[in-house]
Amino acid sequence: MSQPVRNIAILAHVDAGKTTLSERILFAAGEVRRPGKVEDGLATMDYMPEEKERGITIESGVAHFEWKNTWFNFIDTPGHVDFGAEVDTALTAVEGAVLVVSAASGVETQTVAAFRKLREAGVRTILFVNKLDNPDYSLDETLINIEEVLGVRPVLMTLPEYKGGRMSGVLDVLSKSRLIHSDSGEEVVDDSWPQAGEVSDSTEKIKKHYAEAVEFASNFDDEVLQLALEGKSVPPKTLLRGLKELAKSNDYALCYAGSAMEGFGVRSLTTALSFFLPDVPEFADNELGQVIRLRHFKGVGEISLFRSHTNMERKEWPAGFEFSRLKANLLQPVDEIRSGDIYAMRSPFETELGEILKVTPEGRSDPIPQSDQGERAHSSIRDKYQPLLQTRVECLGAEDYHHVEKSLNVLARMDPSFRVQKDDGGFWYLHTVGEVQLDVLLARLKREFGCEVKAGSPEVRWQERLCRNVGPVENTFQLGPHKISIKLSATPLDGDAHDIRLSAEFLETAPREILAGVRSALLESTEIGVLGKGPLVGVCFEVHEFTWTEGALPPMIKKACADAVTKLIKPADVQLYEPVMELSLECPVNFAGLVTGDIQSRDGKVKEIGGDGKTHFLKAEVPLRKIFGYATGVRSISKGTALYSMKLLGYRPATV
User: Fold this and answer.
1) What is the C-alpha separation between 206 and 158, in angstroms, rounded?
2) β-pair type (96-102, 124-130)
3) CA–CA distance, 17 with 38 (Å, rounded to integer)
4) Dihedral (C-alpha) 491, 497, 503, 505: value to the nearest 10 degrees?
5) How far is Cα 265 from Cα 179, in angstroms, rounded to an integer?
6) pLDDT over 90 percentage in the chain
7) 251: buried, middle or exposed (CB in 10 Å: 19+, 13-18, 0-12)?
8) Residues in CB range of 502: below 8 A, 6 or more apart
9) If you average pLDDT over residues 168-180, what whole number do you get?
């Protein structure tokens, strides 16, 4: 029987210990000799210089390991909000996930966002409560917090033990065992525990939580229920079967507790991943596999992270294709690919994020790119992320123009939340979710592609909306024997609609390239906006007349439409709307006044205040333009003790 494959992701709020847990899992599985530390810049999964420098995950790292005769592909996803698109793409290729919750902070903003992503993607989730090496952090309070905020009942499967104020081991509920550290730092079962007939606080805790697990599992397994009703003991194998059914439920979540930093609770969690996650799905016979990530390696070029949908030996591989294991930034060639497994792929043509490659039945040797499907997947993710910043970038030398443009387009293909807008003046606008994403992109542009550019200061990307109906206007563009004429009007859409619509029923019978050209030209015109502060949104264009001569080229259509939009919509016809962020922050109570005063000085409106006497918590609405450089400011005010996150609330009419 072939070895089972499981693809798993790990998600968390920033600083919950996600990458540290990833390193510990690799250590427990024997994949690394010692776990790398994020704070030392030695994490195996964070291989990019920008990741080592910042101590955060930027690209979803992929590692491979074996455990309990199961082959795992392990994806460590970013926790920073600027890289949410990385999480979305990772979740398209996994069967299960670990959601890390810090006992120091409880369920935080990005914890909730990550859990929502997992639910929407239908990914089975196991919880890990981290940072319990500090005995002052309460496991019970964290479990209550999980139930209240995430709306699931956590079923505790490991719990920490302490000795002399330090964490000394964990108790495993299912196996009724204690795990401690060996001399080499590995978690091992304490064979001397418990002594025959020993009754202690630890044995009573195991008994209590085993009974709770039986109670919860009895809702999903008739034999467990029958034994429980008869007052008989439920063997671990029977309980395991019931817990496997429970793990499928959206009302419960298996929960493991420990310390990633100290390496406690990791072995039990890793075993749970082999027990409780679903099999890889069945794929269509004619599918080679799906592109789940795009990467660029200096000196190598573009590669795709690729989930195979078939079993195939090297001799059967399509011409021009190569498959490898990816370890950090190293490629290790393989001789076969297996269904459900993840590889690094080099192909003879460009692939698109989300694209499924299909093969013909004749010898399974001719891949057919389904680029429109890849584009739909890319667009679906792209539509979820609204770039909030725009930054002007230009070449240092005219001779570098084409290289910079090509490199920017590659980066935009790799990250669906990043967009590039070309300006006719010979420069580009980079549209990014946040400042961290912008800094990383500029660093990669130089390091990976060798591009030297001059970047301006990032500005808030506003939205423009029509105040009134405009038009119609007529515009004609002629080049040699070719002539294009258009009559165009526009109306604002109701409510908060931000899409661009086109009403031109008579053009539906025109050649496909004509209709596509008009749509593309109008969309591109609105992307720049009328005032240059951001895109024009919520507009319906109506084409009343459109004539063209045979052989007219797409650039002519673009020019005619762009000039028509310029004639149609004037600055007085639009109003600016600015992005407003929801800021969630917590800090020690002695900094509460300073932090709150700083937010109010930034035109922030505090909407919610709370705390437990030690920690102060607040939520506020703050204009994005007022919160540039906030990380530096709040770090200074709170002496580095404040934790915060932001998300877009929406847009409101600008007052400046």
Assistant:
1) 9
2) parallel
3) 9
4) -150
5) 8
6) 46
7) exposed
8) 518, 519, 522, 540, 541, 542, 543
9) 95
Q: How many residues does the chain have?
A: 656
Q: Are 12 and 110 in contact (CB under 8 A)?
A: yes
Q: Which residue is listed with tokens 């795709």?
A: 304
**H or E, element range at 167:** strand 166-172
Centre a 10 Å sphere on the Cβ of residue 375 and count the other Cβ atoms it contains. Answer: 15
Task: Kindly report each contact of residues 474-479 with a partner whose C-beta sits within 8 Å and lies 24 or more positions away, as own/partner.
Answer: 474/545, 474/564, 475/560, 475/563, 475/564, 475/567, 476/560, 477/556, 477/559, 477/560, 477/563, 479/556
Q: Which CA distances in Å does 453 have to 12, 299, 412?
A: 34, 20, 17
What is the rounded average pLDDT of the residues 495-520?
85
Return d(Cα 14, Cα 111) in angstroms, integer.
9
Q: Are 461 and 388 in contact (CB under 8 A)?
A: yes
pLDDT over threshold 90, residue 206 = yes
Instruction: Name the band, by pLDDT with cuts 50, 70 and 90, for residue 109.
Output: confident
Per DSSP, helices labelled H in 230-343 are: 236-246, 266-276
Residue 605 has, within 13 A of its CA and on its CB side, a CA count of 6
Parallel, antiparallel or unpaired: strands 470-479 and 605-611? unpaired
**What pLDDT score does 397 carry?**
84
Structure tokens at 377: 């997947």
Residue type, 408: L
- What is the predicted pLDDT for the residue at 40? 41
Tell me the pTM: 0.75
Q: Which two tokens stand for residue 369?
A: 């790119």
**CA separation, residue 398 to residues 334, 395, 424, 426 (Å):** 43, 6, 14, 9
